[in-house]
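Internal QA ticket QA-208
Title: Verify multi-chain structure generation after dependency bump
Assignee: T.L.

Test input:
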Amino acid sequence: MTAAKDLLAGHPFFRDLDERYLELIAGCGRNVKYNAGEYIFREGDVSDAFYLIRYGRVALEVHVPGRGPVVIETLNEGDVLSWSWLVPPYRKQFDARALTLVRALAFDGECILKKCEEDPRLGYELLRRFIQLVGRRLQATRMQILDVFGQGK
Amino acid sequence: MVPRPWRVVRVRRETHDTKTLELEPTEPLSFPFQPGQFNMLYVFGIGEVPISISGDPQEPHRLVHTVRAVGAVTRALCSLKRGDVVGVRGPFGSAWPVEEAEGHDVVIVAGGIGLAPLRPALHHVLANRGKYGNVVLLYGARTPRDLLYRKELERWRGRFDLQVEVTVDSAGEGWYGHVGVVTTLIPRADFDPAETVAWVCGPEIMMRFTVQALRERGVSPEDVYISMERNMKCAVGFCGHCQFGPEFVCKDGPVFRFAEIERFFRVREV
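Actual output:
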């Protein structure tokens, strides 16, 4: 997984992470590919992986009865997909569907959690990064909820 | 201060609640304006409202206004037909600093109908493309059906010298573009923060978060300009309806350097 390690080293999400940690994480990764329209995961699935999107666009969708699938966010090249593998109940919260051909690195959550247990420093470094990601997404979601472009605003 | 009659020569439906009116003077008249300025449009017998000029500043013989139907006067404007006459006073207010920005990267961030007052600035930049560095348009709307100037957006996207990213807050099936708030486009846009001038227009809360995201990218508030919206009545700084701290939005604005009004931006009562 030298290629995976190099990709991680150049990715802003893993910036300044020790090389040995990059190697440990890369060891839990594999290349995956999804065709346009294919589901990467579905709401309620066991969350046992996260993805680093290398190419393409992914829609996070929630199915609303009577309205069908509603896209609530899209993720693109360079984005990290999924953080639910880190926290109970370890279930995917949304559907993730490839809007285009998607190439990604998929990281085995169980494998990484095991390495974090063995080396809490790695766990801290990963949590520190994922909490920023969660914070940014929460902020964006709050703005969406405000519906700033709504009538009369 | 006296409205002049202009005739509606074309009405284009942009979205379910927004139309673009093209006006020509009833008598020969040149109407030079700067990108970012606004006019007071008077629907006879109903009232007058401030509407940004959204046309090309290189075509001063024709006025273009994009109007969203939200109140009595804007609803009346949106129901005008070809041949109808409206009163026009203007142009008023400050402008996007298009000449100061020469030699810099330009990032234009628009939210909703906020694209309308930025459109003349983009026209100017594209007409003088060689004088600017990277030019980026980031545009956010509520849903795909709320996007303005769709054909023009597609044309702009086809240019090799302009990065156009469009996002919507929510979408159903059939939309393959970005979904998410407009600020999420800022980290991936191609510009050099130290050499960038940003022009932002949209709802105030969107502008607040946009300035924050630009700051995180390294753009100084000194180089960020925003266009404010207030209840403008006289348009020349007499009546005080549009007072914003010590400024009058109609006269000192609507375009302000963010660093100069930042301290009032967070005051809830202003």
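Spot checks passed. Helices of chain B lie at 72-78, 115-127, 150-157, 204-217, 258-265.
Status: verified.
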